[in-house]
Amino acid sequence: MIAPQTGSEQITKSIPQYSKSNIPFLVPNIRNGLILVIPPKQLKTVLSKPERVVEVHEPQFENVIAKYTIRDPDMYPSNAEVDIVRKHIAKRYGSVAKELAEELALAFDEQWGTSPVWKTVPAWGSLQDIAARAFNRVAFGLPLCKCNICFDLSR
To answer: pLDDT tens-digit profile of 35-46?
Structure first.
């Protein structure tokens, strides 16, 4: 008898066979049915399709069981942030990736610290601040993104 594989085991075994060969593949999942794994080389093509062709937002909310894990009713099922990213940031991602990564690293270090000692952090509020800083860096650039007025307005 063959032991059943977990999703992560199946993905690990399938990556060399399919993804590295640029072939999409399906991974069974008890909770959500089949999950489509798209090779990295095809992601840009898939994500550039209009939403009427490829739906991304709803499956992501379903995957994290948003109605149970996101308690703020203003956020579920909000598309505001997703629309900003999809319409403005995703199209320029290649040109802003370095700045975005730099600002995210700075924001996480500022909000959560760099100490190896565990501490309590206000996750929701700090993640809102981190997202606002990242968005401002991409939208306004330096030095305007550091302006407290812009930060408060985008939060």
So the answer is: 778 888 888 888
Contact 57, 75 (CB under 8 A): no
Residue 141, burial from CB neighbour count under 10 angstroms (0-12, 13-18, 19+): exposed
Domains in the chain: boundaries: 1-47, 49-78, 90-155
pLDDT tens per residue, range 91-115:
666 777 888 889 999 999 999 999 9
3-state SS string for the chain:
CCCCCCHHHHHHHHHHHCHHHCCCEEEEECCCEEEEECCHHHHHHHHCCCCCCCCCHHHHHHHCCHHHHCCCCCCCCCCHHHHHHHHHHHHHHHHHHHHHHHHHHHHHHHHHCCCCCCCCCCHHHHHHHHHHHHHHHHHHCCCHHHCHHHHHHHC
